[in-house]
Design goal:
Elements lengths: L1 H16 L9 E8 L3 E8 L4 E21 L2 E16 L4 E17 L5 E20 L6 E20 L4 E16 L5 E16 L1
Antiparallel strand pairs: 1-3, 1-9, 2-3, 3-4, 4-5, 5-6, 6-7, 7-8, 8-9
Length: 202
């Protein structure tokens, strides 16, 4: 009996999602990550010296959920979790930065074919926590907290495996402005970022 209930549930789910894709009234659930995430080792060389400049690790993961208010046109909410780690052993410097943000977005798919170009825009806010330490100095752990605003404008291509799932490749322009809780200055950053994502539609 339990197997029959599971089979019936899967059949109903398949029936519901067969006609979803990007039509009005459908939902999307996706996750994206920056392709240009870094795992770097660095060195510095001069005419008479060279030294290990340490290593760094950086990546961002962004889950999203949206709803189609019209065919191919979604509104939703995007969350982003970022991590940056820098460790310069020779200089005695280490730093870790954790970021979290939330941003409403609009997303529009073109075409009704398997390969769909799309545009996306979002604007939201977030917080970051930066912990730094100079081991060759006071060796104290300093913590800086910042608030930031983030604008994202991008576009790309999505390939639909079927009516319920796709893979997406995009190029995005990001502009962030952040202010420390202990400082009056505002730091503005502009950059381009390539993302790879996977989305299901229900």
């Amino acid at each position: 009996m339990k197997l029959q209930k599971i089979a019936l549930f899967l059949f109903l789910l398949m029936t519901i999602t067969t006609f979803c894709q990007t039509e009005k009234g459908s939902y999307l659930i996706g996750i994206n990550t920056n392709i240009n995430f870094n795992f770097d080792t660095n060195s510095i060389e001069g005419d008479s010296f060279s030294r290990d400049a340490g290593s760094s690790t950086e990546f961002t993961v962004s889950p999203e959920i949206g709803y189609a208010i019209e065919n191919n046109f979604f509104i939703g909410l995007d969350f982003a979790f970022g991590y940056l780690d820098i460790d310069d052993k020779d200089f005695g410097y280490e730093s870790t930065v954790h970021t979290i943000s939330a941003a409403p977005f609009v997303k529009f798919y073109f075409s009704e074919k398997k390969i769909k170009p799309f545009l996306i825009a979002s604007y939201g806010l977030g917080r970051s926590t930066d912990k730094t330490r100079f081991r060759l100095g006071t060796n104290e752990l300093n913590t800086t907290k910042r608030k930031f605003l983030l604008l994202n404008l991008g576009g790309g291509l999505s390939y639909f495996f079927n009516k319920n799932a796709n893979i997406e490749l995009s190029l995005n322009y990001l502009k962030s402005s952040n202010t420390s809780e202990n400082e009056s200055e505002t730091y503005i950053t502009n950059r381009f970022e390539s993302n790879l994502g996977f989305t299901i539609f229900i």
